[in-house]
Structures are given as structure tokens and as C-alpha cells.
Design brief:
Layout lengths: L2 H15 L2 E8 L3 H11 L4 H9 L5 H20 L8 E10 L3 E6 L5 E6 L2 E9 L7
Antiparallel strand pairs: 1-5, 2-5, 3-4
Helix pairs in contact: 3-4
Length: about 140
């Protein structure tokens, strides 16, 4: 590895120490369905987002709720504070497309229809709200 790449990698590592996130790979749900829920909670306070996910009827909400709880636990672990004391909010949520499994389904007259079983990768980052300083 060259010097420039090593310096860039070290800089990324240092930046990640101040970020509080959780990542879930290969979730067997289509990215489109997961993005509906991700758009719903982006920018919300953590307690409100947990409530929204808990009472959502979509199947993906269970996995997203568990991932959000993991991100909160990561924040608590790194800062050694309680989440109830701080004003945590969902900073970023993004859903990337994962591996697609390709299958065939029998169709009339000897043909076959393609079925694409999609998966996705979800990343959630949480942070505290900074109140503006009044002078």
C-alpha cells in the first residue's frame, strides 16, 4: 500500500471514531420496500423513530428497528452516556442494493419466467442535536 492510500485510510479510521452507526448486510427485502421506511425515520428523534417502526405493519420495520437499537447501543458504548439523557436523532439512513438471487419459475408452454429475489444493505447513523449557543 502506498503512502497516500495509507494516510487516507488512517484519516477515514479517525473520522469513523466520532461517528455512531450500525450496518446490516444482505437483508432479504427489496431495497425499494426498505427505502419507504428509511425515508419515514430519517431526521427523526430516536425515541419517536422507534415508536414509528414498532407500530409499522411492514415486515422490514422489525429489522430496521433492531438496527436502530444497535446504533443507539454503539453510541452509548462509545460515549459512555445514556441515550435517554441526550437528544439523539437519526442523522443518516441509506439503503444500498445487495445481492440478487436469480431463480426460474415454470410458465405455460415450456417457458420459464425469471424471478429476481433482491436483498439490500442498510446503514443507520445517529448523533446528538447541537443546540445553538446564545450570546
Amino acid at each position: 500500500m502506498g503512502k497516500r492510500k495509507r494516510l487516507a485510510a488512517e484519516k477515514r479510521k479517525e473520522a469513523q471514531k466520532t461517528q455512531y452507526f450500525a450496518k446490516l448486510n444482505n437483508v432479504p427485502t427489496s431495497p425499494r420496500k426498505m427505502r419507504l421506511l428509511a425515508d419515514l425515520i430519517r431526521g427523526m428523534e430516536v425515541t419517536k423513530a422507534l415508536g414509528v417502526l414498532k407500530y409499522s405493519q411492514k415486515e422490514a420495520s422489525n429489522k430496521l428497528e433492531k438496527l436502530l437499537r444497535s446504533a443507539i447501543a454503539n453510541w452509548e458504548q462509545k460515549t459512555s452516556q445514556k441515550a435517554e439523557d441526550a437528544q439523539l436523532y437519526v442523522k443518516t439512513v441509506f439503503v444500498d442494493e445487495g445481492r440478487t438471487l436469480k431463480r426460474l419459475r415454470p410458465a405455460p408452454q415450456g417457458r420459464g419466467y425469471r424471478i429476481r429475489k433482491r436483498s439490500n444493505h442498510v446503514t443507520i447513523a445517529v448523533d446528538t442535536k447541537q443546540e445553538p449557543v446564545k450570546e
